[in-house]
Write a structure and sequence with these properties.
Elements (H helix, E strand, L loop, with lengths): L6 H7 E7 L6 H9 L4 E7 L9 H4 L2 E5 L5 H13 L6 E4 L11 H10 L4 E5 L9 H18 L11 E4 H10 L6 H12 L4 E5 L17 H19 L1
Parallel strand pairs: 1-2, 1-4, 2-3, 5-7
Antiparallel strand pairs: 4-6, 5-6
């Protein structure tokens, strides 16, 4: 099936998955912006208690509701399954519910996806701005260097969650990854690199909000999970 670059083709062939946990009023503008561009938008409510996802189905989004919080990784996988149920969909983009990703940049990611025939397009941020916290600069530099050394993948922004995934990559991922929290994104990246899938980068804005109250990433617990997943994958590779 031929995939084209244009916005009409993107509208039917690209689906969006929005994992959401207590994002409050932030999530509705994100979903509205996505629905202006795409036919298939799946919101996965990961056990929220704020009721913010209740109106989204009336807007045209599909909403999956977890009865309790399970973690972003589980929400992503549920969203992928739902998105792939639409036969025309050839790519699925993950978009944060809190507005940290600019949905206006979808066309650029889609163009990279199509022109490079990629399986994973990572929206790549720059980390030289004054608004970027020092710990984010150091953390991304560390994981990017470790990823290059340990699994041989030169990826500039390993922590970006703004990504487009091909159908064939996701069909593989859904067979091999069980789910988790924020470390699932690293696990997908590692599996893509080790599986020989084509990984590409597309520049995006670097959007940071000081003390973002909607972020549920624990800088100690979740950072450790991400690092453990990366080193665990490298150990398995070396042992083989």
């Amino acid at each position: 099936m031929e995939i084209l670059v244009g916005s009409d083709d993107m509208r039917v062939r690209l689906a969006a998955v929005v994992p959401c946990y207590n994002a409050g009023a932030r999530v509705e503008p994100v979903v509205r912006s996505l629905l202006e561009q795409l036919e298939h938008v799946v919101v996965v409510d990961d056990g929220s208690t704020d009721g913010a996802t209740a109106p989204l189905q009336a807007l045209g989004a599909s909403v999956i509701q977890f009865p309790e919080n399970k973690g972003k990784g589980f929400a992503m996988l549920a969203g992928f399954r739902a998105a792939l149920a639409a036969e025309p969909v050839r790519g699925v983009v993950i978009v944060d519910a809190d507005g940290q990703h600019d949905a206006g940049e979808l066309a650029h990611l889609w163009e990279t996806f199509v022109r490079q025939d990629a399986d994973l397009v990572i929206g790549t941020r720059t980390f030289d701005g004054a608004q970027v916290p020092l710990r984010s600069k150091i953390g991304n530099k560390f994981t990017a260097t470790a990823t290059r050394i340990l699994i041989g993948a030169p990826i500039a922004d390993t922590q970006s969650g703004f990504r487009v995934h091909s159908r064939r990559l996701l069909e593989d991922i859904l067979k091999t990854i069980k789910g988790g929290r924020y470390e699932t994104e690293m696990e997908i990246l590692v599996n893509a690199a080790r599986g020989g899938y084509k990984i590409a980068a597309s520049p995006i804005q670097t959007i940071y909000e000081a003390g973002n109250p909607s972020s549920h990433f624990n800088k100690y617990r979740d950072s450790w999970r991400v690092i453990r997943k990366l080193f665990g994958a490298a150990f398995k590779r070396k042992r083989k």
